[in-house]
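[SOLVED] Need 3D model of a two-part complex

Original post:
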Amino acid sequence: MQTLYQQLQLILTIECGRASQLTSESFERKLLRHERWALWFHKLSCWSCRQFERQLRFLREAVQRLERAEQQSLAAGETLDPDFKQRLKQLKP
Amino acid sequence: MLDPDADLGFPQSPGPLTTSDLKQSNDELAAWVDDHADALYRFALLRVRDKHTVEDLLQETYLAALGSSRAFRGDSSTRTWLVAILRLKIIDYYRRTSKEHNPSQTTVPTEFSSERKERLRKWNCEPSRTLENQEFWQVFRNCVDKLPATLTRAFSLRELDGCSPRQVCELLKITQENLAVRIYRARTLLRDCLDKHWFLED
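Solution:
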């Protein structure tokens, strides 16, 4: 457990590096209260970190759609070696 | 979904095979390969980088499918069923290799390290415009493929398969902190790659 002093310190001194980590972690777990405050205060004044958060959201959405997108446009993806396919067809149970 | 003991409909006690069964299973197998092998290949390649390993996994998948085909009653589509088997094979492979893959975590950053110096560029990324653009997906897939192998596992389990952080940590035998670092690294690399190769041209 962090002391009140440490919590305050985070809120007062957070910079972009730490803020980006917290942004990423906010997708993984519920941030602690002082972490949320620190991030919130930082984003109020930091244009880049607001962009970063938006971009991470976009990335997540893109990753989640990646496989469906590839299924729909078969030609774009890599295909299996034809020889290997033939060998697969010869498998015996 | 990732439970290795999940019941996939494998037969409990397969009866003796007859010649007509064999013939039938050969036709079936050929159809499975023609219809689904490429998709399965891409599915596995996203999660396991090494092509030879992927081929081995595909072979195991089809073998398992053959062994259980007579018990398969078509309650899910063939693709879904094959993907489910392949998924288990991949998880199994992760388990088998987690030791050698993870010896000391020297190749994986154990701490966050990123000072962002420059101002970020704004992405012009309306989903409707970008996510339906085929070229975007090619660039994106290239960026995902460029992620270092040490990050791929954590990233694909968490982001592609939607496992909970706890599940991923158990599977890869890493700590929550280490997972957070890996995911963060993967996200920033992916972000930088897209920034450079896609949004630069906007």
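Edit: Chain A has a mean pLDDT of 86.
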